[in-house]
Amino acid sequence: MRLCRFNEGRLGVVDGATLKDVTAALDVLPGCRYPFPAHDVYIEHLDRVTERAAVLAADAPSLPVDGATLLSPVASPGKIIAAPVNYRKHADEVLTDPALHQNNPGRALNIQSTGLFLKATSSLVGPGQGVVIRKADRRTDHEVELAVVIGRRASRVSRRDAMAHVAGYAIGLDISIRGPEDRSFRKSPDSYSVLGPWLVTADEVPDPGSLDLRIEVNGETRQQSNTQHMILTVAELIEMASSMYTLHPGDLIFTGTPEGVSPIAAGDRIVATIDRIGAMTVTARVDDTAPLVA
User: Fold this and answer.
1) What is the pTM of this model?
2) In the chain, which residues have pLDDT < 70?
3) Which of 207, 216, 220, 221 is nearest to 277 (CA)?
4) How much is the pLDDT for 291?
5) In 3-state terms, what secondary structure has residue 50?
6) Are 279 and 196 in contact (CB under 8 A)?
7) Residue 10: strand pairing partners
8) What was the pLDDT predicted at 292?
9) For residue 175, which of 101, 262, 73 has the smallest C-alpha distance?
10) Strands 131-133 and 252-254
């Protein structure tokens, strides 16, 4: 099933170019009182929601997908975990391009050496909300990635058992400011983690290790590869992440980007596509808020 969040936090089942408004399926979720859970309750109970959504969809009101503002399909992840240099050719381009390694070629070390990093959950948006460029005077790049949504608690999980903890998949855009700062800082401005266009449940993606992915900017193909070229597979990334953190329902893993990373600017139209998931269109605009004054 393909489940989207749209407009003012409504829930939809996507069928081709149409979505069915099944927001009433959220009534199966348990009520929560403070202190609220530190994970996404919707993802925790996804099986119950999808069961109810399937019943409601037959008679639910419908609207065109193009007429909806698509939000992140996961509203409240406890963590956004990201994989650096998880494609060999991307590691090679980081090594050879000073604009990417910022005079520190060590940034291109393999992922087994560098480990994973965290992005701020406040950076998460859906494709309909767009990317707001925070530092227009610095290079800002696109990175298209397969995003994994964790479905149940995982701690010290082996790669053999890892896939049982996956709720589904989405397309991720890891937007990155280039510079000398730590990755987590440069990749965490508001809107710099785009997730969408919807959540595709795990049963519809039997092999996440063989998916074509690409990104176009203003009609020009910038990145094009296949997840078979990832250095660490989805299962291995879950094993690595859960060796350090307990993963909870709704946690996200951005699995890394292939070669072809390049700049975006205000006004650009970005189209990211992954096989079996779909395509999402994201626009970039400048941050027009007043600068902070010391």
Assistant:
1) 0.94
2) 99, 101-109, 289-294
3) 207
4) 55
5) helix
6) no
7) 6
8) 46
9) 262
10) unpaired
Q: Give 162's DSSP letter.
A: G
- State residue 26 phi and psi, 5-degree precision: -70, -10
- Distance (Å, rounded) from C-alpha 228 to C-alpha 29? 36
Residue among 217, 220, 199, 228 at smallest CA distance from 75:
199
- Rounded to 5 degrees, φ, ψ at 16 are 65, -125
- The pLDDT, as a whole number, for residue 91 is 73
CB of 292 within 8 A of CB of 124?
no
As a whole number of angstroms, the distance between CA 248 and CA 74 comes to 13
In the numeric block, which tokens belong to residue 156?
A: 């010290």
Q: Is 175 within 8 Å of 270 (Cβ atoms)?
A: no
Alpha carbons 74 and 43: distance in angstroms, whole number = 8
pLDDT digits (tens, 9 = 90+) for 166-205: 999 999 999 999 999 999 999 999 999 999 999 999 999 9
Token duo for residue 155: 């701690």
Instruction: Please tell me the class of the 80-286 domain.
Output: alpha beta
Cβ-contact 160, 239 below 8 angstroms: no
Q: Which of 271, 285, 267 is nearest to 134 (CA)?
A: 285
Q: Tell me how far apart the alpha carbons of residues 39 and 68 are, in angstroms, rounded to a whole number.
A: 26
CB-based contacts of 2: which residues, under 8 Å, 6+ apart? 13, 14, 15, 198, 199, 200, 201, 204, 278
Structure tokens belonging to residue 244: 């350090």
| Terminal CA-CA length for the chain | 49
At position 57, the amino acid (one-letter code) is: A
- pLDDT computed for residue 264 by the predictor: 98
Domains of the chain by residue range: 2-71, 80-286
